[in-house]
Amino acid sequence: MAAPICFTRKRPRPVAESIPVASPQPALPTASSAAPRNGASATLRQSFLDLGQRSFHFVQCPSCGLTYSPGQPDDEALHRQHHAKACRPAVYRAGKGHTTVWSDADASIIQVPHDASQAQTLTAMLAREMGLDAAWLGRTRPRLWLYVVQESKHVLGAVWAERRLVRLAAQPSDDHPTQGHSPPGHSHVGVRAVWVRASARRRGVASRLLEAVLGVDAALSCRLPRGRLAFTDPTADGLAFARAFLGQAGAFEPPRYTDTGVQAE
Questions:
Q1: Fewer CB within a 10 Å sphere, N or C end of the chain?
Q2: Which among 82, 155, 83, 152 has a CA at the least distance from the CA of 123?
């Protein structure tokens, strides 16, 4: 356990035990003695120890997100290693149960079942990049939608989502006022997470993915409107995107998607 930090002065050692390590230095000037004369304003200047480094500041790589100090050999090496690993593109591999729901000459959107090995691999890989727990991301067994480049098979975007049926309150029937019947309710899409590769952002990848997720509902045989999307605690950027995608602005809050259901009116 680390030693506690003390704010009381230590008892001075006896003179006989003191070991001089350097010649006495002149006392530092006090604020009053260092004050400039003739009414000149005092200025403060930050000093640095120049030990040969080329930079005294930290920067964050916009691609891999690592914060490091340029010019420091150890930091530079760590950044190169992390950058190569973090920016390595995810590659799609076809498998059993995968369904292509949209495609054009450049890309396609593929729906992957939750229990497919490709879904497990990509979920673990992309969860680390988003700073999420892979177990939490797949807790509700959501399906995975992938935006895949046709030639390279690189994955540029992904959405974890599932259909949820929101039941309305039971309404009393005419024959039995004390009894009620449950209407079928509304089918919502709970969006667990949305990921888009940094180099592909602001190119409509996320919007195209959500449009595919809203595709044909097997139970209702119709396309769900955008207002049926529910999101799990989006970040500030995610909330801004959700509002723009839903055509809302200001303080609008989209429906919330939780492990137990969708909170919607």
A1: N
A2: 155
